[in-house]
Structure formats: C-alpha cells, structure tokens
UniProtKB/TrEMBL annotation, chain D:
It is found in: Cell membrane. GO terms for cellular component: plasma membrane. Keywords: Cell membrane, Membrane, Transmembrane, Transmembrane helix, Transport. Pfam families: BPD_transp_1, BPD_transp_1_N. The chain crosses the membrane at residues 9-30, 99-121, 133-157, 177-196, 229-260, 280-306. It is a multi-pass membrane protein. Its main location: membrane. GO terms for biological process: transmembrane transport. This is ABC transporter permease. Residues 95-299 form the ABC transmembrane type-1 domain. Belongs to the binding-protein-dependent transport system permease family.
Length: 331, 282, 323, 314
C-alpha cells in the first residue's frame, strides 16, 4: 500500500463560545465549542474523498483547517510527509494545496479582472511568466472559458463561469491536492454536470488528490472514491462510495440517503424521518451524540459513546447497532 | 476608452444636484486662487471714513466697524477655508485609514485597543475640546488643524475598520490566503481597493464639516489670529454689531452655507455613484 | 373539477436601464382544487416574478403587461386595492424561501400571528389561542410559550414551521410555497415536506409548490409546470411529465439530475449554452439555441401542443421528443 | 440584557476616565507655568512656590492625576480662583441649561426628522421625496452657528417674535420654553436633516426586506406595514445616530449659548478659556463628556431594548 498523501489524526478545531462577562463566568468547557471534534482520515495519492454532512457538521471547517485557514486546537495533519500542525511554511504548502471555495463569485476579488485573478497565484509566489496573457488564456481554456472573459470582472460572470475561473486558478500552479468546498453550491443542475465533468477530467489528467466537501448526495457516485459522513464535528461513517450509497450502516447516513428523493415519480420512497434538528455545538448530547434523533436508539445509546469501528462491509461506522445489509432489504 | 457620459465625472455632471455642487466648488476654488486679483479692495485696508457702510456700488457687501470691505474679506476667507479643509481632511483621513485597517485586519486585542481609543476620542465634543485646547495652544490655523485631526481621524478609522472587518472574512480574502498570499498583498491589493470607496465618500462629506469647524473656532476667537479674514471672524464682527451691520451676518453666512451645501451635495452624489447598492434600479 | 387558479397568457414586464425586460411571457397553467401543483425551473426562469405577480407584489418597475390570473374564475389582474388586500392572506397565502428573513425580527411570533388575523373578530386572547393551536398543529413544541418568542430565538426549521402555520391559519384557497425547503438541510426538508402533505390532507387546500428540486416535486406533487426563461414550456401530471417528457428542456433537465443515474458516469449530462438575454428575446422558440431537436420550424414560436387532455408542451417537435 | 447593560456601562465609565485623564495630563504637562496663568503675572516667586506646593504641581504627573480623581470622586472639582467659588457649583448651575438646550434640539430633530424621513420613504422617487431630500441636505449643510445668527437676526432682532437674550425667568416654564425655542431649533436643524436621511434610507432598506414582503403578502394594511412594521426597524439607526450626535449638539450649544447670551456649559467654558481658568475648564469638560457618554449609553440601551436581536448578546 502506498503512503497516504494526507493524514489527519484526531484533528480538533475550536471556536470561541461565550464571550465577555458571561464567558468569564462560564465553566471553561463552554468558553470554546468544538466545530471539529477529533477526526482521523487517510487520503491516498490520486484518490477523491468526499466529506458529506449537513450545516453545522464541521465539514467546511475541517477543509479550512487542513490548509491552515483556521488554527488547529489539537491533533495532527500530515501532508506529503510534512507536519502541518507544527507551524509549517504555509506559503510553500499552499502552493501545492489548492482550494476552491463555496461561493463561486464571492471568492473572486471583486475589483480584479479575470486575467488578474487567474494569474494571481503566479504573482503571489513570485513566478515570472514569459507571456502572462497567453498563460491566462491557456488556463481559462482548460476550464472551458474563451479568451473573451479575460477582461471581465467577477460581477459580470454567471455562477458557472465564476466557478470555472475558480477551477482555472486552483490549477494554475499544478497542485498536488485540491480541497473543493461545495463545488456545486449555487449552480443549477443543468450547469452542475459541466463543472463536475471538468473536475473529473482534470483529476484524471493531473492525477490530483481531491477532497470534496458537499451536502449534495446526488453527485457522490460520480465524483468520489470514498465518502466520510460527518455529524457534529465527527465522522460517523466512512467507506467506499458504492457501499455507502447502497448499504449505509449508520442510521444517520441512511436517513440522509433517504432524505434525497429521486426525480422518479414511480420510485417508492422509504422515508426515515429524523426527530428534531441538529443540536448546537455547545449542547452536545450524552453518549452517542446522534441518539436523540435516532430512529433505532436504545437506552444504552444515551450513556455510552460509540467508537468508529469496522462495519460488516469494508467501511467504518460509529454506532452501537449498525444496520446490516439484510435489514436494509426487509425494511 | 469609455464615452465621457459613462465615466464618473460624466455621470456626476448628469445629476443636477452634483452639477450645481461642482459649480459652487469651482467658484470657491477660483475665488481662493484669484482672491487678490478679483478683490476690489485690500481685505485688511481700514477706511475709517466708510465705517458701517451699507451695501452699495462702492462696497458691494458693505463695510465693517473698521471700514474694511466685506466682499474682499469674504474672498480671502474662502482661501483660508479651503486650505484648512484640505489639509485637515487629508491628514486625519490618512491617519484614520491606516489605523482603521490595522484595527480591522490586525489581531483582536489590537482591534479592541484601537476601537476603545476611537470611542474615547469621539467622547470629546469638537468645539468644547477646541476651547479647552485653545487655552494651551497658540492661536492660529495650525491649532485649528490639530483640533480637527484629533477629533475626526477616529471617524475614518471607525468606518475603515468596519469595512475591513467585513471584508476580512469574505471568501475572496480567504481564497487569497489559501493561495498563499502574504499580509502585504492581501492588504494592499485586495483590501485597500475595496475600502477606498466609502473612505473617499466620507472624506468628501467631511470637507464641509471642517470648514464649519474652522469658521466656528474663528467665530469664538480661538481660530485664526486677530485681523485674519476667516468667514467665522467676519461673522463675529457682524455679530458684535448685529443691530448696526446686519448685512455682514447675512453676507458672511452665505458663502459658508453655499460651500458646505456644495460639498455635501457632491459627497451624496459621489456616494450614489460609487455605492452600487444605493444606485437606482437593479 | 374546478380550478382554483388559472393563469392565461400572463406576461410581466420590467422597465430597466437596458430597456424593457420581459420576465414572463405568455405563462399559462391550471391549478385544480385540492391538488399540489409543482412549478419547477432553474434560476432565471421567472418563478419569483410569477409569485410576485400572483400576489400583486411586483416591484415598482414591473407590471403585468398582458394576460389574466383567475382565482376561482375571477380575473384578479388589475383588481382594485381593496380587493387585493382581501386576496392576500385570505384567499391566497404564501410561505417564502428563507425562514431567516421572512419573519419580522423585532416583533414576537405571537404579535405577527395576531396581526395577520386583523380581519377576524375576537379578542386578543382568542386570536392568541388560535395562533397557538396552529403552531401546535405544525409541530412546534410548547406552542403557547412560543408566542412570546422572537424569530431569532428559533432555529431555521422551527421558523419555517411558524411561516407555514401563518400561511395555513387563514385557510386560504391557494397556498403558495416558494422553495420552502431550499434553505434547509436535507433531513429537515423531509420534515417540512411531510408537514405540507399532512396539512394538505387535513385542510384540503390547494398548494402551488415552487422548487428547483426535481426529486421533491416528483414526490410531493400531482401535477407539474416546467418553466424556462420566463415561459411555461410544459405542463401535465407529474408521472407523465417526468417519465415521458414532451419538451426538450424538460427532458434535458431530468437527464441532468445526477441522482437519476445508478451507475457511475464518466461524463455527466449538462445543458450547453446559457439563458437568452431577456431584454432581447430571440425570435422563435426560446429554447432553440440550446436544443438538440431544433429545426427551421423553430424560428416560429411554438404554441401549446397537447399530448393529451392534461399534458401539453410548447414545442414543434413534441412527438420526436417523446420517442 | 443585564449583562449587556453592565458591559456597556463599564465601557462608558472607562471612556470618561481615559478621556478626562488624557486631557488632564495634557493640561498639566503642556503649558509653561500654570501658576502664572492662575495667579497672574505679578505674583512673586514665593507666592508661586507656595501655590505650587499647595496644588501639588511639583508631584509626579501620575500622582497629580490620582489626586485629581480622588478629589473628583469626593465631589470636589476644585476652586474657581477668579470668583472664588467651587467649580462644582458653577458647573452644576450651568448644566441644566445646556441639557435643556440639547433635549430641545433632540425633540426638534426626532419629531421633524422621523416624520420627514418616513414621508420621503413612503413617497420615494416622487418630486416630494426629492424636495425633502434637498431640504434635508440643506439642513445638514447649514452650520449651526450661522443658523443661530440668522435666526437671531430675523426672528428676534428684526421681527421681534422671540427674545434675543437669556434663558427666561427662573420658575416660569412658559418663559423658559419661549427662550429655548430659537436656540434649540438652531442646534436641532442639522439633525432634522441627518435623522430624515437615515430614517429614509433605513426605511427603504426595511421595505425591501423579506419580512415586509411577508406582511404585505398577508394583506396587512399599507399604513400598518409602513408605519408599524418598517418604521419600527428604521428608527433604530436614528436613535443610534442621535445618541452619538449629542456630542455635536454640545458643540453647537456653545454657539447657541453665546449667540443668544444664555448660561450653560458652553458659555461657561468659553468665558473660562479667555481667562485661562483651568479648574473651571476641566470641571466643565468632565461634566460635558460625562453627559455625552451617558447619553450615548442610553441610546445604545434603548436600541437594545427595541431590537430583540441585540438582547441575544446577554
């Protein structure tokens, strides 16, 4: 087995909770909330891992922690043998780890032209180009945009076009890994396909390692090799994409899959309705943190927290009573 | 090249309010530059035979208690007003810009310290502070400028800070950091251009405020040295003889009102043009 | 069967800096009483303009330039202000997309629910009782206590329940739901859809459900209207339209949904090209530039072509599309 | 809310403390020799030395500052050497006049400003809106002391409708208000303009919000939507602006008090400055800044009380 290119070990990210007078008076554990609460994950070179979760699951925070946009409160991050948790030279690291952001046009500096935007990585890293104009046009072409876009400003781009500029820019320095935060957010389904095809093509051409953050389950099968499902800052299930989609072992994963109706009026939907909403980060439930919403919770779930362990399949799940394949069929 | 009517100046001229404003400001600048050529009399020449003269063909706006020509003095006053306003606004705006960006982009503790000092400086009512400092500092335009800078840079600082703070967490700044951009590049290439719009609007809106402060301080006798024909000093002369020379008050107040009106109109028009949110239509 | 809502060739025009923009053109649809009808379309298709036109809440630069909106047979286009106010909230009510901004932040839930009952008699306590009852019905725990809450004290899902309670409380003839689940997480979306289904069964109201999510429409609605670039391109029973679309756009749209594909696809389908400029609509069929079936015939704007009594599409090549 | 109040109050106290301390330090370090100012040029060196010792002027600066605050906290603001009276008495005697003036100005600006702003927003983009817009800008642009001078010249001197001098008969409310009308209007006029602009802008913003669309979609009467739903939100920034604006009003009050020959903090400071009467200047500054910061705090708390989102902080 090859050496993983990215290794996360018990990664913890904290945000300040209560501030001011209240914060001073509150017990220490309430002064901080854990947005990411101990995540371990290996990503192999050339692999695509999708991190799936709803709002508040900590998936975006995790991606930002990997390339140092938010500080780690604990744990280790190793990228290609470099310890990113020990004050690395971020300037150098970020040259090799590119990031794509959620808001396609909001992540483009509003007073720069597209040409400046795609050349920005070269400017940042002090790379002299013989013919910057040609390079910019080249990069845009890889992302499927014509040279007539070079002179435009971000507000003159549609969501899909802005997304393409983001892709062009992420590829500019030939990175080893790309962190893509919600690559389909804000895009209509008719455009979504084009962007995903673009990503897939580039991944194949450059042998890129990719971490995709998404809440869009529909795209998983077509972009990811493995999937990690997050809930309240922890991974609750991890496995091969087909296995997760066809035989989810965690009740939450299963509810998530079921909550995603297909555009087929004849399909019989077996619904699993979860009770209530995701709890706040400063009010984590006892035991298994999913138990108040879990349709199959038993009394001990409230007392004992499950650990991430092997599933009947090849994946990992943190549940005392994971769903077995045969149960799926009878349900 | 964009056609003229689509440039900022072109769009401003198309707005009647802004056009009037620019006319007034142009008149002020011309008067200030050519005051000595245009003025019918030497602004400080006393003509005791013609004291308290009503407005006439000889003295368009009458004379004061020393027989000095009001019109000539007002022309000279424009020069003083413009000088003080431009100097004080540029100094305080630049200080405010620097501190505001430091507060907005710097570490949290520094932000708290700077914000607290902005709050503290705002607690001094301008004219009252001016009075207090007048007891300590020599009378003159530099004192006026110092008072204005002390009381107004915090306002720029506050606006720039808010703007910077909201941009600091914008995704495009995160994206820059994620690409490895350093502090200088983020601040000068990406924050600054987006902060300058509101900053210039504020500066334009502050010019008339500073002109008013200078006139006010001179009115109170703590601004320009005695004998200097600031608009405020002229008004004070009028006020001292309000029942005999009402024309000085009327004539002395008008340029002040016109100029502040002009700058305020211009500031508003600039804001409408530069701030796309406020532009009409979607 | 009577129709609660009929829209006939409705056009809406905005005056913009770049000249008139026809946001809706010849939009037609029928919403039968007691059904849930879905309106599906991507951004820029005119869904929100349609809602504003229905409620007569178009912005100042917009107006209905043509056509009719019939509520139980009465044309309400150009109705006098008094009649409009009676329409809003009593005959028609609406649940908006974003629960975070659609409730007034400085007024309590109870006050807002009391205010919309201004037409009804009864004391304050009675109105509050009705509000609490409705809140209980949409599944808010401790409904009486919630009346004194302010919107920011409730989660997004709870706020959307409050919004639904407000819309359903007046027992409207037509309830319009404008992407009511788009701002919510998937597991909450399920809860809200089930709630809407339940209310529809209990109250028997007619629901116009606007969404861009094909799966949700497929599950919730009986009929569906497909919109593209301000025009209605297809209308019919959900099963017919989704399984056997008659308009090339509908067909493409369904193909594009990656949730439909059970096998990993190397290349995902997409619709090439982009929306036409609505200030300068192309002559002929609005979808022509992006359509695989386009022929010279498409230079003329297609009228509605009825596949059967209840299913039509605005296309010259309906038969080929359905092959 | 309690936490919020305490936090803001603590901040306000800190601001007053730092602002006055800074001024005090500047006062005692900057000028050459305060004794020559306070005792006059003819005092002998012996008298000066005695005075310095008595006043603690030879102590380290921080020590003097500590002593100053010690005296202030015990209610002693020093002595007015010119008239030989406690500074506290002089300042406290003048304060009510200035407060009345500022309150009068707030009444003018809040009522007229909110009315004008709401009216403008309600009739947006009509000629009425444009006229009221030009008026508001005109009000803002007119310097308050010019307004005061013009008002004095026209309404008091020429037309004789209002008194020219003084604050009115003590104890006679009617006479007091009569004397207050012109000066408080002169101060408030600019703020009528500010408030009108702010209310109009925030009204328009509020009217574009989704919750207003909700209210209209439920058929609430237009008047109710505008004046009860939108205005309620739109007033919040106006309260904030007026709170902070009291600093500006205090500055304007100096002119109004001088132009209309009224007693008050402004004219007190003005008179003391020409005589370099430092203790009186410090005392009056302390009271003026204290008053302003308190007002800003109150505005902040009113805002929090009106806006439930604010209370979340507590």
């Amino acid at each position: 087995m090859t050496q993983p290119i990215l290794t996360l070990k018990d990664v913890v990210v904290e945000f300040p909770g209560l501030r001011g007078l209240k914060g001073l008076m509150a017990p220490p554990e309430q002064r901080h909330v854990q947005a990411v609460a101990g995540i371990s994950l290996d990503v192999q070179p050339g692999e695509t891992v999708a991190i799936v979760g709803e709002s508040g699951s900590g998936k975006t925070t995790l991606a930002r922690a990997i390339n140092g946009l938010v500080p780690l409160a604990g744990g280790e991050v190793w990228f290609d043998g470099m310890p990113l948790h020990e004050r690395p030279d971020w300037h150098a690291v970020r040259r090799r780890v590119a990031m794509m952001f959620q808001d396609p046009s909001g992540s483009l500096s509003p007073r720069k032209t597209v040409r400046d935007l795609v050349l920005e990585p070269f400017a940042i890293h002090g790379i002299k180009l013989d013919d910057p104009g040609a390079k910019a046009a080249d990069l845009l072409a890889t992302a499927g945009l014509g040279p007539d876009f070079l002179a435009r400003y971000p507000h003159q781009l549609s969501g899909g076009q802005a997304r393409r500029v983001g892709v062009a820019r992420a590829l500019a320095l030939d990175p080893a890994m790309v962190l893509a935060d919600e690559p389909t957010a804000g895009l209509d389904v008719s455009i979504q396909g084009e962007i995903l095809n673009l990503l897939n093509r580039i991944k194949a051409q450059h042998g890129l390692t990719t971490v995709i953050i998404t809440h869009n389950l529909n795209i998983l099968r077509h972009v990811a090799d493995r999937v990690a499902v997050m809930y309240l800052g922890r991974i609750v299930e991890l496995g091969e994409v087909e296995q997760i989609l066809s035989t989810p072992a965690h009740p939450y994963t299963r509810a998530l899959m079921a909550a995603n109706p297909e555009p087929d009026p004849t399909a019989r939907h077996e619904r699993i309705t979860l009770k209530g909403e995701t709890p706040a980060l400063n009010a984590r439930p006892s035991g298994c943190e999913f138990h108040p919403r879990c349709p199959v919770a038993r009394p001990e779930c409230a007392e004992r927290a499950p650990l991430l362990g092997p599933t009947p399949g090849a994946g990992q799940v943190s549940c005392h009573f994971p769903i077995h394949k045969d149960e799926m069929n009878t349900a | 090249m964009k056609p003229f009517r689509r440039t900022l100046a072109g769009r401003l001229l198309a707005d009647p309010q802004a056009a009037i404003a620019m006319l007034i400001i142009a008149a002020l600048v011309l008067a200030a530059v050519f005051a000595d050529l245009v003025a019918p009399y030497d602004y400080s020449a006393m003509n005791l035979a013609d004291r308290f003269a009503r407005p006439s063909a000889d003295y368009w706006l009458g004379t004061d208690n020393l027989g000095r020509d009001t019109f000539s003095r007002l022309l000279q006053g424009g020069r003083i007003a413009l000088y003080v306003a431009l100097t004080a606004v540029s100094v305080s705006a630049l200080i405010g810009l620097a501190l505001g960006m430091i507060a907005g982009y710097g570490p949290r503790w520094l932000d708290n310290v700077l914000l607290f000092s902005f709050d503290t400086l705002r607690a001094y009512p301008t004219i009252i502070l001016a009075l207090a400092l007048a007891a300590l500092l020599p009378r003159g335009l530099s004192t006026v400028i110092i008072v204005v800078v002390i009381t107004s840079f915090s306002e720029y600082g506050r606006v720039v800070r808010t703007q910077t703070l909201s941009l600091k967490h914008a995704e495009f700044i995160l994206a820059e950091r994620a690409m490895g951009a350093g502090f200088g590049r983020i601040v000068f290439h990406h924050l600054l251009p987006n902060v300058l719009g509101p900053f210039f609007i504020l500066a334009a809106m502050n010019l008339p405020v500073v002109i008013t402060i200078e006139a006010g301080m001179s009115f109170l006798g703590i601004g320009v040295p005695p004998g200097t024909p600031s608009w405020g000093a002229t008004l004070k002369d009028g006020f001292d003889h309000i029942r005999t020379t009402p024309w000085i008050i009327i004539a002395g107040g008008l340029p002040l009102i016109l100029v502040t009106l002009g700058f305020t109109f211009l500031g508003e028009a600039l804001r409408d043009q530069l701030d796309p949110k406020l532009r009409r239509g979607r | 069967m009577t129709d609660t809502l009929t829209i006939e060739r409705l056009s809406v025009r905005y005056d913009t800096d770049k000249g008139p923009l026809e946001a809706l053109r010849d939009v037609s649809m029928n919403v039968p009483a007691g059904q849930i009808v879905g309106v599906v379309g991507e951004s820029g298709c005119g869904k929100s303009t349609l809602i504003s036109a229905l409620l007569h809440l178009l912005p100042e630069n917009g107006r209905v330039s043509h056509g009719a909106i019939r509520l139980e047979g009465d044309n309400i286009v150009g109705a006098p202000p008094r009649r409009l106010r009676d329409l809003r909230g009593r005959d028609m009510s609406v649940v908006f997309q974003d629960p975070m901004t659609s409730l007034n932040p400085v007024l309590s839930i109870g006050r807002q629910m009391r205010d919309i009952q201004y037409r009804d008699g009864g004391s304050r306590t009675e109105k509050d009782r009705r509000s609490a009852e409705m809140l209980g019905r949409v599944g808010l725990p401790d409904p009486d206590g919630k009346l004194s809450f302010y919107p920011h004290e409730l989660s997004g899902g709870m706020r959307q329940r409050v919004a639904i309670a407000m819309a359903a409380m007046m027992q409207p003839k037509l309830l319009i739901a404008d992407e009511p689940t788009t701002a919510l997480d998937a597991t909450l979306e399920v809860q809200i859809i089930e709630l809407l289904q339940e209310l529809q069964r209990e109250l028997g109201c007619t629901i116009l459900f606007i969404s861009h999510h094909l799966g949700v429409i497929a599950e919730l609605c009986e009929r569906v209207v497909v919109m593209y670039a301000g025009e209605t391109v297809e209308e019919g029973p959900v099963a017919d339209v989704f399984l056997n679309p008659a308009h090339p756009y509908t067909r493409k749209l369904i193909e594009c949904d990656p949730g439909r594909l059970k096998q990993r696809a190397e290349t995902l389908p997409a619709i090439a090209g982009s929306l036409p400029d609505l200030t300068d609509r192309p002559k002929g069929c609005i979808f022509r530039d992006r359509c695989d079936f386009a022929t010279d015939a498409c230079a003329d704007r297609p009228d509605r072509y009825f596949v059967d009594d209840t299913h039509w599409a605005a296309c010259h090549h309906t038969d080929e599309v359905r092959k | 809310m309690l936490h919020y109040t305490l936090q803001r109050a603590a901040l306000a106290v800190a601001i007053v403390f730092v602002a006055i301390s800074a001024l005090y330090m500047v006062m005692i370090t900057l000028p050459g020799d305060p004794t020559s100012v306070l005792l006059g040029p003819r005092a002998t060196p012996e008298i000066r030395a005695e005075f310095r010792a008595q006043m603690g002027l030879d102590d380290p600066v921080l020590m003097q500052l500590a002593q100053f605050w010690g005296r202030v906290l015990s209610g002693d603001l020093g002595t007015d050497y010119y008239r030989d009276r406690p500074v506290a008495d002089a300042v406290m005697g003048a304060l009510p006049h200035t407060v009345a003036l500022v309150v009068g100005a707030i009444v003018w600006s809040a009522t007229l400003g909110i009315l004008l702003g709401a009216f403008s927003a309600d009739n947006r983009n009509t000629w009425l809106d444009r006229v009221s817009g030009v008026l508001s800008v005109g009000f803002i642009a007119a310097p308050s002391f010019v307004v005061a001078l013009y008002a004095l010249l026209f309404f008091a001197v020429t037309l004789g409708w209002f008194p020219t001098i003084g604050a009115g008969e003590p104890g006679d409310l009617g006479s007091r208000l009569y004397h207050l009308a012109l000066p408080s209007f002169a101060i408030g006029l600019a703020w009528v303009g500010y408030v009108a602009r702010i209310v109009r802008a925030s009204m328009l913003e509020a009217l574009g919000e989704n919750y207003i669309r909700t209210a209209r979609a439920f058929g609430l009467p237009r008047r109710k939507v505008i004046y009860s739903y939108a205005l309620r939100v739109a007033i919040l920034p106006a309260v904030q602006v007026l709170g902070v604006g009291i600093g500006g009003m205090l500055s304007s009050a100096v002119f109004a008090e001088i132009v209309f020959s009224r007693p008050g903090i402004g004219s007190l400071i003005y008179d003391s400055v020409s005589g370099r009467n430092y203790p009186l200047v410090m005392g009056a500054m302390l009271v003026a800044i204290g008053f302003f910061v308190t007002c800003a705090l109150v505005a902040d708390l009113i805002n929090a009380a009106l806006d439930p989102r604010h209370r979340k902080l507590s």
